[in-house]
Request: fold
Amino acid sequence: MIAWGASNGPATGQLIEGLLRRLPHPEQSYRACLGLLALRRRYDAVRLEAACARAVAAGTIAYRSVKSILAANLDTDPLESHAITTRLPASHEHIRGPRYYDTPPTDLFADDRPLVRSRPESLC
Reply:
């Protein structure tokens, strides 16, 4: 079955191999593999290979992923060759820093005001 998928392209073969290894018994993945190969009837081999490459790159080894990539025409978009990394600056206006914790806490109950308001005499 892997060779059958690899005849379409390396990414298709890699995806079918991933499908077969995903479950403890390879037989459980046969329907997903056959469904993936049946997509060749609806889409051409180039689009199927591009969708499989996108699914492998995204780490979503599933028939549904490939089918939704093809349905949304995401296979025509180029794959990002570099990983996007986000780094936060070491200091910005929302970071308190160690000096914030050096100040003593304020005593909320320093004044002897009652915590619960008493009702006015007119309501009693």
